[in-house]
Automatic annotation (TrEMBL):
Keywords: Bromodomain. InterPro entries: Bromodomain (IPR001487), Bromodomain-like_sf (IPR036427). The keyword Oxidoreductase does not apply. SUPFAM superfamilies: Bromodomain. This is Bromo domain-containing protein. It comes from Hibiscus trionum (Flower of an hour). Residues 12-84 form the Bromo domain. The keyword Phosphoprotein does not apply. It holds the Pfam family Bromodomain.
Length: 175
């Protein structure tokens, strides 16, 4: 976690790091919709506090929060906005700094292999369906039904897109 701390310090001490070093001042900046858009606020100062409390059990959890901080900034601020551009640059710099550690972690921890049966048991898939298929019975949803369902979904999507286009055009004409 020492490397994570070093990476975090580099980001925080950057010339524009102050922008991401503390929680967004939603009230002071008048961002009334912030919490409607951003469901999990995060900033580098919070990450630093969490590191001091040994909150992160692994560098991957640390990296997840760092990415969240910058992704939140890019999500809330539209492309072309200076905060969006800075967040994008900071995220790229973070990935560059974190990559060697990430590669090292991948080498140390080989991926866990899960047998199909275990994966099936852990999934939300209908387990009765799996038994029926193993015994050679037909699926609950016949292939013809699923093809029909896909066709209806495609048609619905096309109609919705056409409707949205017409609404958008009518709004442009009326203004």
């Amino acid at each position: 976690m020492k490397i994570c701390s070093q990476i975090l310090n580099k980001l925080m001490k950057h010339k524009y790091g102050y922008i991401f070093n503390s929680p967004v001042d939603v009230i002071g900046l008048g961002l009334h919709d912030y919490y409607n858009v951003i469901k999990s606020p995060m900033d580098l100062g919070t990450i630093k506090s969490r590191m001091a409390e040994n909150f992160y059990g692994s560098p991957l959890k640390f990296s997840s929060d760092v990415r969240l901080a910058f992704n939140n900034a890019m999500l809330y601020n539209p492309k072309g906005h200076e905060i969006n551009a800075l967040a994008e640059q900071f995220l790229a710099r973070f990935e560059e700094l974190f990559r060697p550690l990430s590669l090292k972690l991948e080498q140390e921890e080989p991926p866990k292999r899960v047998h199909f049966e275990e994966e099936l048991q852990a999934s939300s898939w209908d387990h009765g369906e799996a038994d029926r298929l193993k015994n050679g019975e037909r699926s609950i949803v016949d292939r013809d039904d699923s093809v029909d369902m896909v066709a209806r979904l495609i048609k619905f999507t096309a109609v919705r897109a056409l409707f949205q286009t017409q609404v958008f055009q009518s709004l442009r004409i009326s203004h």
